Structure formats: structure tokens, C-alpha cells
Amino acid sequence: MRTRLANEALDDALDEVLAEIEASPRGAWPQLLRLRFPNDPSLVKQALIWLHAGRGDDLPGTMPSLGAGGDRFELAVVLDSGATASVWKAYDRKLGRHVAIKVFHARASSVIQQSLAEARASSEVISEHVVRVHDVHDADPPYLVLELVGEHEPGGGSLELGASAASCRPRDLAEAVRWVRDVARGVCDAHLHNVFHRDLKPHNVLITPVSRRAKIADFGLAISATTATDTSSSPGLVLGGPSGPARIAGTPEYMAPEQARGLPLSLDARDAACRRTLVAVDVWGLGALAYDLLSGAPPWRAEAGSAAWEIAATGRPPPRLERTAAGEPIAPRLRKIVERALAPVPADRYASASEIADELDAYLARRPTSFDRGAPVRFWLWVKRNPHLTVTAAVALSLATMSLAAYRTVVGLRERGRELAAEIRQVERDKQALAAKAQEARRQLDDTELNLKTQTASLAAVRRTLTDTKIEYQTIVAAKTRELETADAATRQLSDQLTAARNDRDIAEKGRELYETFWNRARDEAAQATTERDTARHERDAAQAERDQSAKDRDAARLARTQAERARDEALADRDREAAARHRIEVDLSQLAAELSTLRTSGVTTSGVTPSGVAPNAVTASSVPPKLTSSENAPSGVTPSAATASGVPPRAVSSGGPPSGSPPSAAAAGGVPPSTTSSAVAPSGVPPRATSNAVAPSATTPSAAAANIPAKPPSPP
Known about the structure:
Blueprint: H1 2-22, H2 29-36, H3 41-55, E1 65-66, E2 73-81, E3 85-92, E4 97-104, H4 109-123, E5 133-137, E6 143-147, E7 150-152, E8 159-161, E9 163-164, H5 173-192, E10 195-196, E11 205-207, E12 214-216, E13 223-224, E14 237-239, E15 246-248, H6 257-261, E16 263-264, H7 272-295, H8 308-313, H9 332-341, H10 353-364, H11 375-385, H12 387-486, H13 491-550, H14 554-558, H15 561-601, H16 702-707
Antiparallel strand pairs: 1-2, 2-3, 3-4, 4-6, 5-6, 7-8, 9-11, 10-13, 11-12, 14-15, 15-16
Helix pairs in contact: 2-3, 5-7, 5-10, 7-9, 9-10, 12-13, 12-15
């Protein structure tokens, strides 16, 4: 204890002497030091080094030396200077190499212990990302021999010295990520040897000048499992807490929240809980280093009334990373990695430095990170990793798509061509069928017009017959009137004849109405035929237009001759159907004529004798003369038969008529001559009618009249 106090007093006296000499001109420093320490030349050299290191100047004149015998390490240039030590570029005369020597300003035992602790901590780590310690000197003056971070220029071969990341900023975002990745690898190697840095910042990261790689330096605050740390000599602020004393050590702008609140003095790297705490502090340091290299500013900055470490102790997250110092936007994938490393809660950070290194490697290689779980993001990263393969695949896919589209287009065009050819053939067949239908319609129209003319002539004959029937009826009425006036005995007979005449008139009226109905139907059919004719004409015109259009496709139409023949067969079938329809119409007309004949023949009486004793006659129930239903004209005249008892001449209304001047038949038993009909003798004074299409015989025997043989029904028109 006394020795320690003596050394501290000696250090204080030496500091006062150096401060007094430093106030003098530089040229007087060597003389003043020799006067103060006349018996200690090595102390004079060391004090001169300290004085120039404090000013950051190179040594003038002869370069001082360090090492055994004072001539192994030749100091050349001051690389950096701090509160407790300065770093020199030196030349190792024994091994013939350039090294870096860290010379401590004070000779106190605490400084020597700190230098030894740093040397032990860094010497345990063997990594290409950590500055190696070659040797340590704990005598007066204490210093460390370190690896010189420098590289020879490829062109000129001169040695270029590296610089810290605080002065040598990254050229772009990718280089900043690579530096953090290198530091994370070095921190991982240190953790594998139970060495924890606790003070990661840009000033403690050295960058090689040519290869631009990062190396970790300054393990002054490091804790290792094999180093017996004297907590009383470690720098920092010691505070009391509920769980015991805690020390706030490190750089305030880069402290982790738990580090700013104070770490226990009893931290042991061999304890699992302490190890997790130390790993979390270094993971935060890596995030703080990445934050500074990306944004150009540390995570914590002093504000009005609050120091940087006080803001860090609050536990709030640093400002959000948006853009780099050069204005380049920071990718969300990278920002998430940094934000996880800077999580306020240690459990939310990465579990190790190797995880950060792997995440940054994946980011640089454009591989998925732990945050890239979506298939679209992974596919996009694969595309970014394999641009040539992606372009090749895209071109192949495009060619395949174009080929498929072209093939489908060709197939579609071929199919469309076949469809158009089929449509052309179908149009040609339709045209031929339409032409055939037009011709058939024209033929049917001509037939309809001919039938209409025939039916018109028949209707005219019916009208003339009806007129003759009316005239005959008037004649019968006049004859019956005369008979009533001249013969009282024939009154009953004349009354019956009058009733029969009225019945004939009613039947004639019904026949007229029936013929008028037939005529109206024929007229409607004629109108319908006219409409069909007009439609056929329109279709013919349309067919003519289509024929003109199809003349251009005549060559193609020749190929459809076989289909046209099939259409011709169908047209012939249509014609047969039309003929069948016409036949049905004729059958309907025949049925109509048969109905008329039935009406005519249904009222014929078989036999009978009038009260006046007239011979029996075969007359219809209504005594209506039959109508002409054939297409022949009415008879040109009526020749009277033998005179009846009342003097009324009979009239023949058959289609042929009796021959002119036919002799009357023999007189009946009642004095009434027989009529010229082929069936029976009419009543007295009533002229007989011819009901067949043939000419009645010149005379009829009474036996034939008594037989009551019905007349032959009229033939169909």
C-alpha cells in the first residue's frame, strides 16, 4: 500500500514537471528535461515523447527509441492521441517491420494495470478483424506494440496508413454495411474467447486504406474471463444502486441503455447471466456503429439540459433511420436489422454478434434475412442475386409465351378459315335452296292463279244457276197461283207444292250461302296466294341480289355441287309436300261437293201418290233442284217436256239438257204426262229437274218411275 501511494505521489510530481516544461518553448524542452532528470536519460526521452504526443507533433531531430536497450522500436509519426495514451507509427529494428505503439502518458500503477488488461484481452483474440497485440511493456514508460493497420499502395509500393471509421467515412451504403459486418465478425471472434469490448464506436474501428476492411482496436474497456480486473482502476463513474454499486463506462453517444444506467462492478465473463448482458452491450454497440456509419451521426446526442448518456438511460429508441448522410434512402430490410440491434430491451436484440454478421451477409448477398419471410420478397431477392439467369428465364418465358400465342393465333386463323369456308358453302346451299323455293313458289303461284280463275268461273256458273233457280221459283209461284185461281180441286196440291217451293227456296238460299262461303274462302286463299306471290317476289329479288354477290364466289360454289344436289332433293321433297297439300285442298273441295250432293239427295222421297191421283214421283224432300258443281257451263236453254195437266211446261236443268224437240212421254193415269227426268215423274204441274251430268232420256216408262231408282250423284269437280 505504501509503495502504491509512493508511486502515485511520484506520478503527480512528474505530471507537474511535464506541465511546467510544456508551458516553455518547444526548443527548450530537451534542455529543461536534462536539467530536471540529469541521471535518467531514458526518462528524458520518454518525457519528450509524452510532451510531443500531447501536442500531436512529430519528434524533431533524432527519432526516439523504445525497447530493450532503447533501440528496438524507432518512433516516427504520431497516429492518434487521447487523454491517457498516444499511438505512434514505429519501426521494429529487430524484426524489420512497421508496427504501431500505444504509449501511455502516465506511469501510475493503474495505467500499467490498464495496459496489461487491454493487452491480455486483445491478445486472446486471433481474428483478421481485430488489431493484434505483438508485445507489452509494463516498465517505465508503459506501452503496447500493436499491429500497424496499413497497406502498401499497389502502384507505387509506398506504405499507406489506415484511419479510423470516424475520419474515413464509407463511400456508399454497401461499404458501410461491409464495415459493420467485419466488425461483427471480429466481435464474434472475441466473444468466442470470452472477451467483450463494451466500447464499439467509429473511433475504435480502423479501416485499411486499400482493401477497405474494418478492424477492431482499443480493448481498453474490455472484460475477459482470464483477466483479473481491478475495478477500482477501471475508468468510469461509479454509482450506488439497489443491487449494489454500478459503473457507467464507455462513450456516452454510443452507450446501450443498460450501460448508461450502470453495469454491476461484479460482472464476470464466465457467468451465463453476465455473459448475456455483455453480449447484449456489444450487440448494441454494433447497432450504434451501423447507425453512425449510415446516418452520419451517433444514436444519442446531447440536448438542452441533458447529456447524451442521460438520454440513453431513458430507454427510448434512437431517431428513426430514413436516409444516409448523402441522402440515399435506407432499405427497409437494412433498417429493420439496425433497429433490432438497437432494441431498448436486451432480450429483443440479436442473441449474438454472429447473427448480425449473418444478417448483413444475407443483405449484401441479396439473400433473405430473418425479416424476409414472404414468397414475393424471396423471389425478388433471387432475381437480384441472379440477374443473368433471371433475364435468360424472362427471355425464354417471353419466347415461349410468344410462340404459344403465335401457335394459338395460327390455329385460330386456320379454324376461322375452315369456319368461313363452311359458312360460304352453307350460304351457297341456302342460296340454291332459296332459288329452288322461289321457283317452286312461282309455280305454286301460277297454279293458285289458275285455280283461282277456275274457281271464279265456277262461282259465276253457280251465280247464274242461282239466278235461273230464282226465275224458276218465280215461274213455279206464278203457275201455282194460276192453278189456285183455276182449280179448287188442286188447291191442296198447289199448297203442298208451294210449301215445297218454299223449302226449295230455303235450300237454295242455304246453297247460295254455302257457295258464298266457298267463294270467300277462295277469295281469301287468292289473297293469301297474292301475299305469298309478293313474298316470293321479294325473296326472288333478294335471291337475285345474293346471286349477284355469289357470282364472285362461283369458283368456290362449284365445289359445293354435291351439296346443291342434296338441296335439290330436299326441294323436290318440298314440292311433293306442296302437291300433297294441293291434293288435300282438292279432297276438301270434293268433300264439299259430296256434302252438297248429300244435301241434295238426302231429301228424296222413295214413293207416293198425291191426293189428286197423280202418279208417284221421285222428288226431294224439299223439292230443290240440284246445283251444278262441275266446271262446265250451265245449259243454254230449257226445252219443255210434254204438257202437264195445268199447262206448265217442264224445264231441264242438267248439264247436258234434253235434246230440242223431244217428244213428250205417255200420259200418266191422272192425265199428267211424265217429266224428262231419269228418276221419277214430278207432281202435277211441277217441271222435273235433271240431277245427273248426262242428258236425260227422251221418255221414261211408268214402271221405271214406280221403281223409284235414285239418280246418279254428281261427280266431284
